[in-house]
């Protein structure tokens, strides 16, 4: 009799469980259809809620930093940033040290005769140590990649699309690199090439997102208009916003050291822009609508121009668009109570890349 009284409850519970499970499975299989950009690993049902912690804004702030590296690790080696190899070598710390060394002032670059100071300050040994560590990690990853018996199931990106694979194939089919450099040196340059990719690709991405989010939070109307767009291939206003972020906060403002053949006005020059210091994406919908950042318009060259401009302009822009779209689609952003736009420190740090000093 007691069992009979439980029957309706059991029936209801089993129906509920079945509906819930089929809904969950459907969600999972639908998600698999899309090739989504990298995200933090999540738990079933609660997703990433447990990772927000007591200070959600600080936790979210760390995400673009980490995932800029993750995306590049996948593209370069086909394996994600959290794979054991990187952690064993302290990859995140190595990248931070590399950026500090790259952006720091080195007296030897300006006065080669003062090399001894460079050794005395410890700069030389820091550089040597960092480069050796990179070489070791990259050599190990390249060797692993070249091994046909490696665990392929851990690879996340199709082989032919990885940088390291392209580098291997270039050597196999002997693409004539001789006019650029000595082919025999190519092997020893593999590691420095990969390092260039990481150095150039992670900080620029993160800095653009950081400045972009600050500008949007300070300009709620712009944020609202950007959020009103929903179709990823049709985010016209967001693209204009990104142009304006690049104009006002080019992540690599002095580009790489090059010699200019004539004087040009770049980015924030008052002769080229009305109200150059104001964040105003609408300028690219009016008289400046034909200006883009692909290297033809010298007043806006966040990726440089000419044959030594950034080779990753398409990849870099796509990553910014995807990340910004996700941040704006999923969250409403505002300043904490009592803080106004004027309280934010927008001072720029000097270095090869231009981040906010407040960071
Ligand atoms: C917001 C994203 C990015 C911006 C604003 C940016 C900007 C730049 C700039 C200004 C230069 C120097 C160009 C010159 O001196 O004329 C450069 C060079 C370079 N960038 Fe980027 N970059 C971005 C993303 C990336 C990414 C994701 C990668 C790699 C995957 C990358 C790889 C490189 C490399 C290898 C160079 C050196 C090219 C050479 O010297 O020939 N960049 N980038």
From TrEMBL:
Its cofactor is heme. It holds the Pfam family p450. InterPro entries: Cyt_P450, Cyt_P450_CS, Cyt_P450_E_grp-I, Cyt_P450_sf. Keywords: Heme, Iron, Membrane, Metal-binding, Monooxygenase, Oxidoreductase, Transmembrane, Transmembrane helix. It comes from the Eukaryota. The chain crosses the membrane at residues 6-25. One of its GO terms (molecular function) is heme binding. Heme binds at residue 310. Belongs to the cytochrome P450 family. This is Cytochrome P450. It comes from Quercus rubra (Northern red oak). The lineage of its organism: Eukaryota, Viridiplantae, Streptophyta, Embryophyta, Tracheophyta.
């Amino acid at each position: 009799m007691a069992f009979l009284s439980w029957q309706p409850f059991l029936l209801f519970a089993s129906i509920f469980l079945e509906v819930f499970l089929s809904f969950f499975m459907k969600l999972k299989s639908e998600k698999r259809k899309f090739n989504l950009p990298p995200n933090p690993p999540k738990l079933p049902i609660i997703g990433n809620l447990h990772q927000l912690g007591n200070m959600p804004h600080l936790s979210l702030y760390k995400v673009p930093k980490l995932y800029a590296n993750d995306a590049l690790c996948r593209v370069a080696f086909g394996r994600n940033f959290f794979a054991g190899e990187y952690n064993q070598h302290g990859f995140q710390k190595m990248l931070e040290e590399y950026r500090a060394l790259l952006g720091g002032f080195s007296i030897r670059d300006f006065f080669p005769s003062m090399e001894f100071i460079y050794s005395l300050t410890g700069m030389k040994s820091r550089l040597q140590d960092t480069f050796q560590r990179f070489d070791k990690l990259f050599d190990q990853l390249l060797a692993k990649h070249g091994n046909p018996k490696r665990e392929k199931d851990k690879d996340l990106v199709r082989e032919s699309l990885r940088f390291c694979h392209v580098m291997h194939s270039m050597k196999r089919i002997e693409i004539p690199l001789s006019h650029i450099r000595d082919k025999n040196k190519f092997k020893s340059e593999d590691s420095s090439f990969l390092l260039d990719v990481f150095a150039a690709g992670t900080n620029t991405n993160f800095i653009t997102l950081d400045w972009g989010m600050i500008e949007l939070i300070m300009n709620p109307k712009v944020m609202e208009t950007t959020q009103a767009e929903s179709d990823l291939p049709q985010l016209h206003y967001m693209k204009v916003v990104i142009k304006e972020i690049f104009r006002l906060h080019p992540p690599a403002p002095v580009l790489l050291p090059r010699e200019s053949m004539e004087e040009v006005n770049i980015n924030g020059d008052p002769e080229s822009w009305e109200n150059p210091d104001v964040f105003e994406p609408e300028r690219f919908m009016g008289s400046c609508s034909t200006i883009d950042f692909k290297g033809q318009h010298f007043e806006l060259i966040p990726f440089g121009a000419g044959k030594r401009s950034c080779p990753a302009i398409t990849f870099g822009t796509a990553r910014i668009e995807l990340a910004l779209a996700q941040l704006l689609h999923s969250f409403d952003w505002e300043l904490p109570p009592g803080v106004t736009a004027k309280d934010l420190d927008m001072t720029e740090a000097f270095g090869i890349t231009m981040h906010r000093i407040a960071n």
